[in-house]
Amino acid sequence: MPDVLVAGAGPAGLLAAFELERAGLDVLVLERDARPSPQSKALGLQPRSVEVLADRDLLGALEPHVQARLPAGHFSGVPIGYTDLPTRFPHQLGIEQAHVAAAIEARLRTPVLRDAAVTAVSQDDEGVTVTAGGREYRAGWLVAADGGHSTVRALLGAAFPGTPARTSLVVADVRLAGKPDGLADGWQLPSTGSGYLLPLSGGRFRTVVFGEEQQRLGRDAPVTAAELQRALTAAHGPDIEVGEVLWASRFGDAARQLERYRHGRVLFAGDAAHIHLPVGGQGLNLGLQDAVNLGWKLAAQVRGHAPAGLLDSYHDERHPVAARVLVSTRAQAVLGIPDPDAAAVREIVTDLLAVPEARHAVAMELSGLGVTYPGTSGRATDVPAAPDGRAVLVGAPLPDGWADRVETRDGPAPRLVRPDGYVVWTGEPGLAEALSRWFGPPR
Ligand SMILES: Cc1cc2nc3c(=O)[nH]c(=O)nc-3n(C[C@H](O)[C@H](O)[C@H](O)COP(=O)(O)OP(=O)(O)OC[C@H]3O[C@@H](n4cnc5c(N)ncnc54)[C@H](O)[C@@H]3O)c2cc1C
């Protein structure tokens, strides 16, 4: 019997499984689809995600697939420079989500079980029972990372309040049979206009369209080449010709978040816990950060040394971060609507974001670098994660009784760093108290 089941082999579920395995747990990932999707919703990694993947030695596997290092993020299409951010990686990596997922999956000890859609969940005092692909699985805990339409969320009847979708958009990857002159041929920040075209590898183009026709058609209407052709002609003129449509999907701007990320022995992560308009490149990154915040806490719980409240601190720390992203993406959605008043607000916001302090504050938010948690003093930028998921104590002797949970390293600046990279002690008196508070009492 595994220690933990994970529902969903998207980026959030895979990284959660990786973190749990790193900490020595047995994990089984249950995935609905028969094979990994070659299609990518997200096309970018924010700096904090790049740091996290680098610290876990996962960045090298991504390198061959990196198509751009963009020195900026954007707020509803307004470029937000990243070059002065306090990080080794002051850029967004242009990379397709499928490569990120594949790189993490390749590092799992236990292969993902595919064709295993979760259809039932029950829990008792000792564990959870999950039906997936017609079979029953039992474990102590379930991480629900089964995406924005989460079945686990529905099965548990978990409250998912927020605002409904008001606008409908289509994302599609296409090949073009005809191209207008002057079409960009390198990766760039997406514009917010309907019909922008971003060149991907292999002659593919990513487009997002959201004109009057998309608002009229229902969310379940199939996306046709003719619909895309009309939208792209409107945006680029008569020379553009849609060839093959490789993948297309409709999505909206609903913004919702679970009231509670923990339901007994079930913990939600990624899009299963929060959905919003994918503007500003936030969703995948939020899910990756959920996974690294949850992984070490759940591992400590399973191994029996989690201090009281540690597992619940997953909700306490991560819920406000996603709540803020929902505010940010809802504001960005308003700036993007075709309305003269929205254009006026955009002009003012653009001017405000030219003020260095304002730009820096928004850059820290979009990049994920500005995230801090109560009782921590920011992230350590130069302390790679311990390969076995332990915390790291730099530049100070470790008191007896914590060596199973804390690795020691030499270094000039004393720090105690959680397995997810956040600093919880910086050399003042009280190291033993900090160790107990975060990692449990000495053995
Ligand atoms: C058009 C578009 C563009 C985007 N661009 C960006 C971007 O640039 N940057 C960014 O950060 N984010 C972006 N996002 C958001 C990002 O793609 C998501 O936030 C991200 O995929 C969430 O990862 P996840 O692992 O939580 O969920 P998912 O990637 O949705 O993975 C969930 C997994 O669960 C599986 N599953 C579903 N139901 C079950 C079940 N019952 N049992 C078992 N398995 C199940 C699914 O098959 C899937 O593999 C974009 C989204 C869209 C739609």
Automatic annotation (TrEMBL):
Tell me the InterPro entries matching this sequence.
FAD-bd, FAD/NAD-bd_sf, RIFMO-like
UniProt KW rRNA-binding keyword: no
Limits of the FAD-binding domain: 3-326
**Which prosthetic group or cofactor does it need?**
FAD
GO function terms (MF aspect): monooxygenase activity
Q: Which UniProt keywords apply?
A: FAD, Flavoprotein, Monooxygenase, Oxidoreductase
Annotated PANTHER family: BINDING MONOOXYGENASE, PUTATIVE (JCVI)-RELATED, TRK SYSTEM POTASSIUM UPTAKE PROTEIN
Name-wise, this protein is: FAD-dependent monooxygenase
**Can you name the source organism?**
Amycolatopsis melonis
